[in-house]
Fold each of these.
Amino acid sequence: MESTILKSENFSAWFGEHQVLKNINIEIPRNNIVAVMGPSGCGKTTFIRCVNRMHELTNDTRVEGSIFYTKNDIYKMNPIILRRFIGMVFQRPNPFPTMSIYQNVIAGYTLNGASLNKNEKDEIVEDSLNKAALWNEVKDVLHRKGTFLSGGQQQRLCIARALAMKPEILLLDEPTSALDPISTAKIEELLFELKKNYSLLIVTHNMQQAGRVSDRTAFFYLGELIEYNDTKEIFTNPRNEKTQNYITGRFG
Amino acid sequence: MSLDDKLSNVSQSTDMERGILIRKYKNIFLKSLVIFLTVVVTLPLLLVLFYIFKRGISAISWSFLMNLPKPVGETGGGIFNALIGSAIIIGIAAVIAIPFGVSIGVYLSEFRKTKLAYWTLLSVDVLQGIPSIVIGIVIYLWIVKTMGSFSALSGSIALTLMMLPSIIKSTEETLKLIPDTLKEASLSLGVPYYRTILKVILPAGISGILSGVILGIARIAGETAPLLFTAFGNPFTNTNILKPMASLPLVIFNYAISPYDEWHELAWGAAFILIVFILLLNTLTKLAEKKWKVQF
Ligand SMILES: Nc1ncnc2c1ncn2[C@@H]1O[C@H](COP(=O)(O)OP(=O)(O)OP(=O)(O)O)[C@@H](O)[C@H]1O
Ligand SMILES: [Mg+2]
């Protein structure tokens, strides 16, 4: 029996008066890749932004219910601490434009004022870039600006930056939607590798991608979690009519 | 029909040729007009610069820079007191204006939708439009009267008010252009908000902020009116900011309206130095924008 790393209970979220998530109950097993699918505007981004408490940074938002990270209610944790356990990769690569590749990777430490010596830094940088499958491509240009890299490389740099903080969970919001097929394939391969040590929650519009990389798939529709099951089950034998319609491309 | 045929057809049609010719003349006409108007406006500007340089350079010498003004009738004399005074007055104004201006700019870009931001922005716009002499009078009433004497400090405060809008605006406008995703990248790494602003957002906007600051300094460097009632001027070198102090624009003003030729010379020399300083600042702005340009 796999252990659960993340669990939401009757979780709802609002933008002003607009309820975007309705009573979400979901359990994310450790060392799994869970894909979040659903038509545009159904609340996928909002859901993962609630998991690392970025949702509350938008004015006039609120949430109800709870999300547990292992045994801890995340809404009772300090968000700054929480975000060190739960890393995030965004839809568009967003390396820090003023920093070199090297500085980008250790940005989580330097920005927090942690003092590391050169060896520790070198180690974190090499290790994280290796995990993000980027080391070989950039090891000779570590001191160039991160923004000089290609889009796919930038996205892997952002993954390395998140991994450098040694998180337990990685949230990815359509991480390949701005990338070409080759970069996408590289990142998918990487996700598979990362699963050994991390639990991944990935939002994707691309059904093939969900099918390829994920163990479990959650289907959201109009703010509700319609169906959540093993990816194979969802794609071959969806229980809910809406899921079926979505997968067969009848809407969305 | 092959392409060659088409082309020869086109060149045979005289109607079309005439059309092209007319357009060509229109083009030439408009271009000449634009160039002519540009020259008409630029030429006087260049002449003014040229004249100041010509008159000014002859006044410049080592003793001009290092001496105090001499009484009427004696030749020589310099503007040492005004140079020191301007440096102090502008320096203090900048030291006050930069932290306030940048903070207000950050506030405006971060909390755009609040009531306070709305009123602040409005006040900044109004402040920008207030004639400098009015600012001088207000500071005279508030500070010079209260403290009982003219002082460099009151001059600096008047200049602070004059340069604040430029710093605030350029900070706000620069930061507004920085994508939110950058802030989120930092926050998602568990970096606290205040550190995110200080270490991610401000460095990303440094070129715009810096150029706003430099342009702000260039703007106040030549201001005379706000200093008339505040720093007042001083024939001696003074470094006490609670006492009246000389400055370049005041020297230019006082000497230019005097009836003495020697003093006119001093005014030309001071004007030259002021202009060179401002040109330098403008060049510096361009360099700063280039050097620290951040590509997202
Ligand atoms: N900043 C915001 N302010 C107000 N409403 C918002 C905001 N962001 C999102 N919403 C609303 O919340 C709902 C869910 O948005 P969300 O971004 O979570 O959708 P999504 O499933 O990620 O869509 P997409 O696939 O297009 O990325 C939408 O109806 C949207 O209009
Ligand atoms: Mg989204």
Amino acid sequence: MTDVMDRPALKVVGTRPIRPDGVDKVTGRAQFGADFHLPGMLVGKIKRSPHAHARIVSIDTRKARALAGVKAVITAADLPDLASQEYEAGESASNLRDLSQNCMARDKALYQGHALAAVAAVSAQVADEALDLIEVVYEVLPHVIDVEAAMEPSAPVLHAHLFTEGLAERPATASNIAKVNRLGRGDLEAGFGEADVVVQGRYTTKAVHQGYIEPHACVAQVSQDGQCQVWSSSQGQFMVRTYCAKILGLEIADIRVTPAEIGGGFGGKTTVYLEPLALALSRQSGHPVKMVMTREEVFRATGPTSGAVIEVKLGAKQDGTIVAADVVLKYQAGAFPGSPVGAGSMTALAAYDIPNVAITGYDVVTNSPKVAAYRAPGAPISAFGVESAIDDLARELGMDPIVLREKNGVVSGVKAVYGPTYRDIGYLETLKAIKDHPHYAAPLGPNQGRGVAVGFWFNVGGESTAAVHVNEDGSAVVVTGNPDIGGSRASMAMMAAEVLGLPVEQVRPIVADTASIGFSMLTGGSRTTFATGMAVTQAAGKIVEDVKRRAALIWDTTVDKVAWESGQAVCLDATKSAVKPLTLAAIAAQAGRTGGPISAEVSLNAQGAGPGFAVHLCDVEIDRETGHVTVVRYTAAQDVGRAIHPAYVEGQIQGGVAQGVGWALNEEYIFDADGQMENAGFLDYRVPVASDLPMIDAVLVEVPNPRHPFGAKGVGEAPIVPPLAAVANAVRDALGVRMCDLPLSPPKIRAVVDGLAS
Amino acid sequence: MSELDYLAPPTVEDAVRALAAGGGSAKVLGGGTDLLVQLRAGRIKPGVIVDLKRIPGAIGVREEAGGFVIGAATPGAVIGEHAGLVGAWPGVVEAANLIGSTQVQGRASLAGNLCNASPAADSVPAMIAAGATCLVVGPAGRREIPVEQVAVGPGRTSLAADEFVLEIRLPARPQRSGDAYLRSIPRTEMDIAVVGAGVALTLDAAGTVTAARVALGAVAPTALLVPEAGAAIVGTPLDETALEALDAAARAAARPISDKRGTADYRIKIAGVLARRAAAIAYRRAADQGRGGRA
Ligand SMILES: Cc1cc2nc3c(=O)[nH]c(=O)nc-3n(C[C@H](O)[C@H](O)[C@H](O)COP(=O)(O)OP(=O)(O)OC[C@H]3O[C@@H](n4cnc5c(N)ncnc54)[C@H](O)[C@@H]3O)c2cc1C
């Protein structure tokens, strides 16, 4: 491994060059999912269930097929009926049968917006008319969306085959509780017995959508010989390839997926909705098929994250030592099992060293869209409950909220509740960064309040491939298999440039299709800069070894007499005092005579990702008459290991905070009595707009991860973990009342103020 | 397959004829910021679109007899740049300029905001408070009606299918007068009013309110002119007692529904709050003006 960390001066890593994909993005040239066109391309559209829960008695597509201009119509009958099978693709496991049935309902529609059939036609108008001609007979069933209602034994059951996992005995009846998982240690009862102070609370969050600006979009083409091509916007072209192969029963070798530029994903594009359908439509019609969701479809049929109930009970001694914690998490999974309650459980108390702990998580299916990963999946939800309770505990004890967290905070060597022993973590340093920040001591104005909250995210490594090619003029191309969501092209180019000693502008990073680079897990889990960055660095390191060998050849010396300094080979052989150092350009120019083209590829399974800790400080001001909460100041500190490109790390932190503030204040899925989503658009599903937020001060704490060549830790997810509680704790400070139910929208705040007055 | 025609007639008469020929399936196009969105969402399926923007005078503001005539398709951006209008009716201008974003401001018109007949339309309470009228044209000729007589329910107007609004007219501003518009939205922009309140008032030399019009948005099927709210502050120096009375009158008039954008109870309370706050701003503007601002 090339370990560059000890080198005294990094020239490129840690600087802020302009991102290589920037110009095309700001000038509108970048090709997003919907921008791709092929000759003869058809428009694919989806017929969706108007009911939240219904048995599909029949689907008659004859009239649609007969309409002029309609070239293909598919239903679940055109896809293989898969058996239940857990499959690992990318960072999380999915059940292939569920995945297939989420793309296209079989037997039952499980949420309003669930796909029932799809058509491909010569125009959008014809496709729309064809959808209207598809006749579906439903037997409407009672539905359930609220998580606790779905857990009731009397609730309508979504899946007759679903029996709760994780119980001591296999239950006799089907249930919406897919799984109960438990984590813990110590003796809870004894722990609470030791406590001088006990606080508890019940908190709720609503389902919220990732809110990426770019709707799902793809073009698919199946040739007469069965060769399949897909161009789509996703977080992983290899994930798309795998899932399409599984859902359609195809060979992986027959599918080539090219990643489009991605207009946001936040975890929501770690699965497939359109690609298998577009392929099936193309196969049937013999034409390329393009499918683009509307915003409404994105809301109704793609993954939000769970709405949840969080119950927290904490016991502490008078000196602030937390001795016991009992956490119960109930997460909506949507139509199929697989809420992020597991990660919510593992992260809930990850920042605390508590001897007696029990965490119980319930994964509950509901008649709402199947949840998808959303930035630190599950963690913001459990953190909202735990960090609210910790805040109450600090008040109860009369302790500073940061001091309380320091007293109970995890350090390297401590075993996390979820298993591993921490190494090289920077949590206390991050707490200190906030405690020492001028914001922490700044005076508050009238009707203002201040809140602190912390967050944890694992970050992952995993499988990545990277190739580095040196061009004839000594510039270089870096090829990876990871879609660039948060500026990773820039980081990849920078790491390669650092090792090769090139100016970053001479390194062109590209994201390749599945046939042009080795397998790479999707961009998610905050893994790309860590894992793919490691592959890039190692590939660049191999190039350096190679060019040193070539320099030795040119100089007629041995490779141990060649050093690589500042992007040139330097001859250490005393007998060759006349030779001048050789630049990469000079060596590339003679590549033909020294062994041919200079390139290297590295595939690895990166281990040793360093977890991220975030500490956030939020000031709010409350308009007590209108109930509006304004975030007036926000400071977010995070242990980032080492910021490869500090501006994009700050951007990740600011983006996470913005999403978290939206979750705290306004975002929510609103369903009517029939289970129809009432706000499936950006007008009434309120993500924050720029003017809703102050400039978010991102403070980078750098405690390097020694298992990455430059010390990087994942940074993209931790920043969305604390804001829900940071905002809620600030509101608590301003109002004097603990509010436990998100979002903290103006009518709720006004009702609390009215309650105080009376 | 459904077809859609687009016409951009050069005269009022041509536009009236085009609308009449289209029957019920014709739609008037101003800035299109409502119409095109509804078209794309499939909520309306017109057979012909009649664009008003080619009609001379449809875009632009002119002063007439001390008042202002605003062409039907004049976008918010043009309104906001008209110094005379901004000086005379700041409340109407700020309401018009609240609509959407910079991009939307390049198109969105007062007449479109009015004729779209959303109960939450931002400029409408401000126009009603200001005593604005509109000039309606149709096969039978021209008539001038108060703004509050245009919308009759959500999405419905009193205009016949072959009529349209040619001009919005604002009267000459009386001396020592001011107006203001406020709305409540969960966010800070790009949102739809949960409640809106427009107030226009006139003071005497001593600072007593001599005339006041108060209008509320989003608390009934159409924007409401609330005479009781105006009456509550006439004859007062807009002191705390008067503001309380205004608040109560606004609340009494509000009859909102509960929906995804806010509960009825919340909307009623906010109607009072915003009426009070808008009145205070209008009062300050009127008083400033009395102290030697523009006459
Ligand atoms: C992103 C966005 C944000 C928005 N934000 C706001 C907001 O904050 N507040 C708000 O109130 N609105 C908002 N709107 C709605 C819209 O922009 C306004 O209602 C705008 O004033 C409509 O004007 P227009 O000229 O674009 O109308 P158009 O879309 O052209 O027309 C609207 C309706 O009125 C009819 N019409 C138009 N002109 C005439 C006429 N002269 N005579 C008769 N009928 C006519 C049309 O047939 C149509 O039914 C927003 C819209 C968008 C897309």
